[in-house]
């Protein structure tokens, strides 16, 4: 427990408020759960009780512990009952005026040393604090849903938040078993800003007819080792919520094209296809729904006289070398696998068609896998100039290694590699603005959205020069500000 905090008040008994109250109570704090509707706070406590009863039934908690936890939660509809708290966390509607009004009332009744905090996910902490006479004791404590299960808390520092407030809030969150990361009050904080390309690049690939929804999700899970594909995740979050967050970040950064919302997602929102909660989004969730099959390539056989050789520097992907079981013919050129004169090349943001022209030979590019040896699928894209027979030979080669093959439209950066490049670039841009430390960004993305690696870790592994090269190729191909490299990325590439 945090020594300076004994009693925690939570304002708002909705899903997030109830979850935060449970977290505080099970961490040994006395809790006041306030809601203007008395029945709502009581129902929230009853829901907590029911959840804990299931844990007792599964042998995950003792009944005595459950009773102690529930006894620590006091429900109230009288704001004055909050006055005894050492920390107040607001979890009401996402409306600036409503939050400012509430905190003015809280400041008038709370103890001088009491910390005031908001669980907002999208509103500026600096803006909320501007309504207070003591903005230095105000901080953001952004929990992720469901609060009892998700390990991340973003500790958001407004322009007036002092060091003591920030440090005390961080220590308190850590005492609740959370990974607490500190960020400036910039639009999207850490996770909701850095994660935007995960959705945006998938939506763009769909709009460009590179692959279908189920194909993209499968590749991200199986080859990229993400827990969920981008379309599954958007359906789970809710398209109304996901689209609103993207639009708010886009508007907050003065329509920076890097955060441009998707018309495809807006159309889903306009249609009321919000995802799981409306039983339809990118997928259907009614009783008659069935998952579409992934569009794997049909089976082909590699000719008996096929010649294969491996060339170049594969330091960024040693598992690919293991998968091929081929010796390196040379280690100084750009990496490629030669299959009967066809150059099979890892994507670096240049299309197979462009490479085929420059190399004057047939080319197939392939996407990134977190581990080529273990991935059940290879994503490939052939040059427009290739013959069908040439493409089939590449398919047959990877099938001979026990892989399913997904052939997609020739597209710069493909799916997983391109998305990682954009995530890394966005993370570096946030760090460059002083929004958060590199280490905290990695913790946030792994704990908050369950990425297999933090974007900074991934960038270090893949090489800053490779990241910059890909982003630069994308910017050149599209001519869009969306793909401008972060200044910090340019600096890191220079010294790497």
Distance between the termini: 43 Å
Q: How many domain modules?
A: 4
Overall residue-averaged pLDDT value? 96
Report the sheet-strand fraction. 5-15%
CATH topology-level name of the largest domain: Rossmann fold
Shape verdict: elongated
Helix-residue proportion: 40-55%
| Side-by-side strand order of the widest sheet | 3-2-1-4-5-6-7-8
CATH hierarchy class name of the largest domain: Alpha Beta
The named CATH superfamily of the largest domain: NAD(P)-binding Rossmann-like Domain
User: Judging by the overall fold, what is the CATH architecture of the largest domain?
Assistant: 3-Layer(aba) Sandwich
Number of strands: 15
As residue ranges, the low-confidence spans are none
**What would you report as the Rg, rounded to the nearest angstrom?**
26 Å
